[in-house]
Amino acid sequence: MIRKNLIIFSLTVLITPIYAQQNLDSRAKAYIDSALKKYDDTVPGAVVHVIHKGSLVYQKAFGLADLELGVKLKENSVFEAASVSKQFTATAVLMLVEQGKIKIEDDIRKYIPELPDYGKPITIAQLLTHTSGLRDWRNVGYVTDLVNQSFVYGDGDALNVIFRQKGLNFPSGTKYSYSNSNYDLLALLVERVSGEKFIDFSTRTMLKPLGMTNSTWRTDYRKVIKNRAKSYMGVKGNFITQMPLDNTNGAAGLLTTTEDLQKWIAWWKDGKFGPTLAKLRLQHYVLTNGTETSYALGGVHFYSKPGSKLITHGGLLAGYRAITSYYPDIDLSVTFLSNTRELIIPKVADQLLEIYSGVKPLKTDSTKLKYVKLSPQEVQQKVGLYKNTLGVRTVELVIVDGKLRVKNGGELKALNKNTLVTGDDKYQFQGNNLLLPDEEALVTYKKVETLTPDSTLLNKLTGLYYSADADTKITLTVYKNSLRYTRNGYKYIYLRPSYKDGNIVGFSGLDNGLMVMFDFDTTRGDLQVSMPRALGIAFVKNK
Q1: By C-alpha distance, which of 180, 185, 191, 306 is closest to 252?
Q2: What's the pLDDT at 122?
Q3: Of 118, 115, 117, which is closest to residue 189 (Cα–Cα)?
Q4: Which of 480, 494, 486, 493 is nearest to 465 (CA)?
Q5: CA distances from 443 to 175, 345, 387, 440 (A)
Q6: Mean of the per-residue pLDDT values for the chain?
Q7: Separation in Å, CA 48 to CA 113, 162, 230, 299, 317
Q8: Residue 318 region, left (φ>0) first, then alpha (ψ -120 to 50), else beta?
């Protein structure tokens, strides 16, 4: 009897974890199916691939690869990896570091002297972690005639834009700001140090050894790629094709499948790149103010979430989305590739983390927060327009029905006289400045005046301007109590009066989908044009 009970107990011990695992897998499958069920055979979609503790949990394709022909996506469909490519470029650089051919703190101008001297070295580590301050060459291109989808950029074109920039977004090492210029320069660095073409080097050292047989680097956007999914922009019933007209490599350029990306994650997990690269890959960069960035040397974000650390990177190019996420504490990997922008997968990955870790994310319960009542004077002091000192965004606080609100947003409630919240957003005040999170740090917003220009000011600002950095001309004319501009005689864009700060007046607008700020110095007659990731592009007025 004792022996029989012992056998039953032993079987129970063995079987219970199996049932528990199967239950988790079933929950994960059901969740993904539910989250992606609307991507049927009438719309573009995605391929999702999930592995937990070495076992396949989920691998499924949703939606169409080609809307015109009605071809369905398959599990081996090929997509643009977009910025997920950066992991491979970073690894190529770290291999050269391991071989002793370069040092992580080397000045990049030691290898690429064509890059302007900005008065302080820009290191290889700063390029790898987006702390160089270099303007994103793609965004600089948005104020030229040669924007994406109208001009096919090659590596040489991208480098020419980078080498023309006379200024930085910020002094190197002082801030994190994502810029594709960093990684296109790193691809050139690999070529000059290794003596091989970047594509040849990365294929020889990574794609082939890992068995990534369905992956290749883009060499010609017109090349026929077997099983490639087309890229789409829009919504159901109103999609258009939008394939990347691009022949650059480094910041992007990898064509791949979810299965090949799982091979990439597994190679790192199994330690096959060796201990030196494994350590370097997850090493963060420390800014001059002592803050550690989440973006690591290996071209990945590395940080903690409730339930596990996370090694991840996403990508977005034309209509393609991509992501790799690995949760090392629970050995869970998620790879995702899509041919439509509207699908946001990080939420799905985070839900899988919750399922497998059993740890729910900490959420602020606004009903349990203790608010304080500000005096009418304290409220009035916070009303006004605030301008990002290192960006193009403005935030306006107004009083509506006696309550302080973000214009076109929610009500602000005070935790104390200098900290107010709306939803999960926290607004911190320091004197006349407002502090808001931006990427990986708090950014200062300075209180400014709302601009109401008169005809004298508007006429003073009109004329022809030229930028050597962007190599483009723009014409500004008066239009409906404001300004509009054209680039080289076409594409009129209306500018909205924005702010006044001393002798600086700002007008804002949308150009190619990006917010653009035109900052005029009314004393000197200077103009600087800024957009996300490309700040302070100088324009000189034709006298």
Answers
A1: 180
A2: 98
A3: 115
A4: 486
A5: 10, 27, 10, 9
A6: 92
A7: 43, 36, 17, 22, 18
A8: left
Cα–Cα dist 458/505, whole Å: 11
Print the SS3 string covering 295-330. Answer: EECCCCEEEEECCEEEEEEEEEECCEEEEEEEECCC
What is the rounded distance in angstroms from the CA atom of residue 107 to the CA atom of residue 79? Answer: 35
Strands 64-66 and 216-217: unpaired
Least confident of 8-17, 146-155, 333-342, 467-476: 8-17
Bridge partners of 3?
none
For residue 100, pLDDT beyond 90? yes
Q: Kindly report the pTM of this predicted structure.
A: 0.92
Does residue 126 sit in helix, strand or coil?
helix
What pLDDT digit, counting tens, does each position of 235-249 carry? 888 999 989 888 999
Distances in whole angstroms, Cα of residue 387 to Cα of each of 57, 149, 232, 378, 508? 47, 31, 35, 20, 12
- The CA–CA distances, whole Å, from 245 to 49, 86, 257, 317, 449 equal 28, 19, 20, 10, 42
**Position of tokens 């503790």?**
53
Give the pLDDT confidence of 388-439 residue by residue, as tens digits.
Answer: 998 899 999 999 998 999 999 999 999 999 999 998 899 999 989 999 988 7
437 compared with 302, residue with greater pLDDT: 302
Instruction: Give the domains, in start order, of the chain with CATH numbers.
Output: 79-134+169-357 (3.40.710.10), 366-449 (2.40.128.50), 455-541 (2.40.128.50)
Which residue type does 420 have? Answer: L
Closest CA to 471 of 163, 179, 251: 163
